[in-house]
Amino acid sequence: MTALLPPGTTADAAMLQVRQLTARFTTRDEAVQAVRGVSFDIARGEAVGFVGESGCGKSVTARALMRLAPEGSSVEWGGSVLFQGHELLSLPEPAMQGLRGRRIAMVFQDPMTSLNPVLSVGRQIDDMIRRHAGVSAAEARRRTVDLLGLVGIRDPARRADDHPHQFSGGMRQRVLIAMAVSCQPDLLIADEPTTALDVTVQAQILRLLLRLRQDLGMALMLITHDFGVIAGMVDRVHVMFGGEIVEHGAVDEIFAAPRHPYTRALLDAVPRLTPGGAVQ
Amino acid sequence: MLIRLVLARLLWSVPILFGVSVVAFVLMRALPGDFAQAAAGTTEISAEALDTMRRQLGLDQPVWAQYLRWLTDALQGDLGRSFATKAPVLDELVPRLLVTAELSLIAGAMAMGIGVCGGLASARLRGRADWVVRVFNGLFLAIPNFVVATLIVLTAGLYFPSVGIFNYVPFAQDPLANLGSMVLPAFSLALAVSVTISENTRAAILEVASQDFVMVARAKGLRRGAILVHYLIRNALTPVITVIGLQLATLLGGSILIETIFTIPGMGQYLFDSISNRDYPVIQAIVLVTAAIVLFVNVLVDVAYARVDARVRYD
Amino acid sequence: MTELAPAEEAAAAAPAVPTRRRPRGAVLLGIGLVMLALMLAITLLGPVVAPHDATRTSPDSLAGPSAAHWLGTDSIGRDVLSRLIIGGRTTLFITFVAVALAVVCGLVLGLSSGYLGGWVDQVVMRALDIVFAFPVFLLAIAVVAALGPSVPNLVLTIAIVYTPTLARVVRGPVLSIKRWDHVEAARSVGVSEFAIATRHVLPLVLSPILVQTSLTLAQTIFTVTALSFLGIGPPPPNPNWGSMLSEARQFMELAPLTVIGPAVAITYATMTFIVLANGLREFLDVGHR
User: Fold this and answer.
1) For chain C, which chains pass the contact test of at least 3 CB pairs under 8 Å?
2) Of A69, B162, C71, C102, which sits with the fewest C-beta atoms within 10 Å of its C-beta?
3) Cβ contacts of A60 on chain B, cutoff 8 Å
4) Is residue A3 part of a domain?
């Protein structure tokens, strides 16, 4: 299984350059413009946040980077997505398949439905490793067990043979994260990774993502509707609304002095404790 | 947990089975005409001989006593003796039952094969393939199996006169020839059932394809073939397999017709001959055994589905 | 880069305005109704339309299609086309009457069982389960064999065999509808239970009943023709499609139309009801959204 992108690609500051990205969904009845000209960069190893409420187009933008259209939909992508020197929107499908999971990986929102119920979790990670690295089954399983341990699954060798329904929500999300980083992608996209989890578990998962990012040197694209999740995780933030980026900047700046009224509204939505302990 | 479910379903079937046996019994005993007369098989019999016969058959007892006697015998494996041949019904029934079972199973397997392929093509290829499959489905569902069988025999007679159609060979004698002789009959049976399976497969595949974990599989960069087999088919197949189990009743019923057309010595022929001969113990036994099989298979199907369902919907 | 596949849903970023469209299933329903009308017209006008007397024999046996006999003749010289038309009357008559009976019984059983609930429901359902345990066709054969083949017995048999499915189809919606608001409201105003059942619950159960009735009609055509194929259908001299098919087997290579005629007729009738059922299913579902 040969690499589809030249190894050791030049450490170009803008690993990912998105220019005027558009996405247009057509069904039998109507056409919807979900993304209307979005532009941003992500540098190697950088962590970037995308914040907005449901329907603002942030998830669609992420999926555009991997060219994943929902099943049964007809999508037209427009604009340019330049990743490590390659234009992803015009890459042939087989090349795109080789790139997914290997260079760009994604962690999805709902851990309860994101795993195949009939396969063991170990098998689901093995398959991905073997697909991209072409190693033997034994070697793949060895790596899988390491990964499961890395994300905090206890007794990983035994647990690798368990099926998804034998894991809790938080554990499943860890498995999915292990799967996503299994081939050491250059860019990890996390689409609302904690939204479906209990509050107590959310912090653990976020810490895990942070740690993995530091250990593996990946770039991180964190998508959420909750500003509280962004804090401490990313360097820069893009705020999206109605399919467009309405504000962007360094995290501290945004928190301190939001310019766009929508950003302000989002920030206000985050419950904060006043010095006296009251929730604001 | 699973054992409890199996026991519960089996227990549930018992009263139904009793009800079935009552129906089978009543059907026969409620017939016009003299039961003893039919047992004798001839009208030229003296009145005393007829009375003796009546006593022998226990017809002088009250009906409920007759029923109980029949039932207890049946539970011990004694399904009475055929009026026509005087041989134990069970001995005659079992080999024929096996033949019918073989025909039904082959038909079931064919229906699965045709149906799953059709459903897959319809769901994944969409467009023209979908349209073609669905039109054919509509047609094949409407043609009754005995019409298909007759048309097959007609076509063979007209265009392939040298090929023998009515050439049933027992399995024990020559397995390959036996299977060969079953192909056309099984196909006639399978066609209508394959439509149901095709529609179910199509729906199941479409449903699974829209699930999150399939999107995740694509995001992992897995190739389409791998996704098709391990993610789509393996998840879609479980509801489809339960459908086939439920179609067993249809297959059994249909094989009665097909056996008469292709002169296959199964339970269908047996039922038919015994109706003409008014061989009541046989008819009763066939009705009882068939219903018992259907009930049993339904229990199996329920259990299988619950097991898979529990895993899929554990949360 | 465009990816094209038949579309089904959109991840809408903005609310979408639905466009006007012909209701789903209207085409199918239309086709089914036309097929049904054609079939009914021909069979009802039977004796008028048929070119010959269906039971009149002639020395001109196993003839091919000709001007006098559009579909040829059978082994004793009877006109195939006329026999098909008249045979249709018998077949369809039994079918409609039997299914009507089954629908009525199914409605009564399903409504009362679902509405009254409790032990009545349990008893009725267990009884129906017993009938369900038999392969439909086997049961039909057994009952007809027991009662003897005649038109009334055939009708009765089919009604018995298909009532359980219809009862179940009725019972389902009744169970859930029972608790709806307007039923509670009517009850609180003092409307009698019977009036509630017939005037409030019944109309809402109508859609599934219509669809299932159509399906049952298709299945009944199968059962009736299959039973007569086996020789335990309506007795002679009137022709019917199943026995025509069976009789034709003897000399079918010599006169294929004697087989193809009934085959097409049976398939056409069955397909009419299946198309109707599918059309109704799609059409009515939309109406209920």
Assistant:
1) A, B
2) B162
3) none
4) no
**pLDDT score for A278:** 54
Is residue C271 included in any domain, yes or no? yes
Smallest CA–CA distance from B251 into chain C, residue: C135
Residue C83 domain boundaries? 24-44+73-284
Q: How far is A238 from chain B (nearest CA, A)?
A: 23
Q: Is the dihedral of CA A59, A73, A185, A173 positive or negative?
A: positive
Say whether residue B311 is in contact with chain A using an 8 A CB cutoff.
Answer: yes
CATH number at residue A106: 3.40.50.300
**C1 within some domain:** no
How deeply is B262 buried, as exposed, middle or buried, from its count of CB atoms within 10 A (0-12, 13-18, 19+)? buried
Residue C151 in domain: yes
Instruction: Transcribe A36-58 into DSSP letters.
Output: EEEEEEE-TT-EEEEE--TTSSH
Residues of B in contact with C267 (CB under 8 A): 139, 142-144, 147
Has residue A185 been placed in a domain?
yes
Average pLDDT over residues A92-118: 91
Q: Compute the half-sphere exposure of residue C216: CA atoms within 13 Å on the CB side of its CA.
A: 29
Closest CA–CA distance from residue B46 to any residue of chain C (Å): 26
pTM of the model: 0.79
Interchain CB distance below 8 Å, B221 and A71: no
Residues of B within 8 A of A72 (CB-CB) are 206, 209-210
Q: Which chain A residue lies closest to B312 (C-alpha atoms)?
A: A117
Q: In whole angstroms, how large is the CA radius of gyration of chain C?
A: 24
Residue C2 belongs to a domain: no
Q: With respect to residue A31, please indicate whether it lies within any of the assigned structural domains.
A: no
Q: How many separate domains does chain A show?
A: 1
Of the ranges A51-55, A81-85, B23-27, B102-106, which one carries the lowest mean pLDDT score?
Answer: B23-27
Going by pLDDT thresholds of 50, 70 and 90, the confidence category of residue B42 is low
Span A213-229, average pLDDT: 89
Q: What is the total count of domains within chain C?
A: 1
Map residue A104 onto helix, strand or coil: strand
Determine, yes or no, domain membership for A34: no
ipTM, 2 dp = 0.85
Percent of chain C with pLDDT over 70: 85
- Give the gap in angstroms from C-alpha B121 to the nearest C-alpha of chain A: 15
Mean pLDDT over A70-75 rounds to 78
Mind giving me the DSSP string for A181-246? HTT--SEEEEESTTTTS-HHHHHHHHHHHHHHHHHHT-EEEEEES-HHHHTTT-SEEEEEETTEEE
pLDDT in tens, A162-183: 999 899 988 999 999 999 999 9
Give residue A177's domain range: 46-61+100-269
Residue C188 at interface with chain A, using a CB cutoff of 8 Å: no
User: Across the interface, do B223 and A131 touch by the CB < 8 Å criterion?
Assistant: yes
Q: How far is the C-alpha of C248 from the C-alpha of C225, rounded, in Å?
A: 14
Q: Does residue C267 or residue B23 have the better pLDDT? A: C267
